[in-house]
Amino acid sequence: MDWTPEQISELTRLWGEGLTTAEIGKRLGISKNAVVGKAHRLHLPARPSPIKRTGPRPQIFRQTAASRPSQPSAPRLPQAPREPRVATAAQQTSAAALKALANQPSAKRLPMMALSASTCRWPIGDPGDADFHFCGERSLEGKPYCSAHASIAYVKMKPKTEAA
Length: 164
Ligand SMILES: [Zn+2]
Description:
Number of strands: 2
Strand content: under 5%
Bound molecules: zinc ion
Mean pLDDT: 74
Largest sheet: 2 strands, antiparallel
Distance between the termini: 139 Å
């Protein structure tokens, strides 16, 4: 811009008064940068009393914790290896279920000599075994076995004498 002598004198005066460059520019109707540039070219002296900015400097807050992601995602723990499936007890015994039924140990575990006419003489276990014994439960009337063993013994033969 073209500075008029009046503007230069005004600039020099206002500069000497210590006005801010922005204020000087406003008074002269020019930009602040024009004031600064002209003052520099005029070799205007440093301000006698540098204007201290009244307001506090704008604090530049470092965005630290606030801007960070709330929490780093926790690393996923590796899944524990699944335990190998163990055959259930039911599966293990299913094959021998029928045999186990027939050889189910009796609470009485009567030896042969203790058998009587009213005791089930269903053999349980191997006769050569020390664990061999007889059922010993109360036998059905007219039958050598208890009801449970009778159902096994006579499963294939319908006793005609049942009614008798
Ligand atoms: Zn029995």
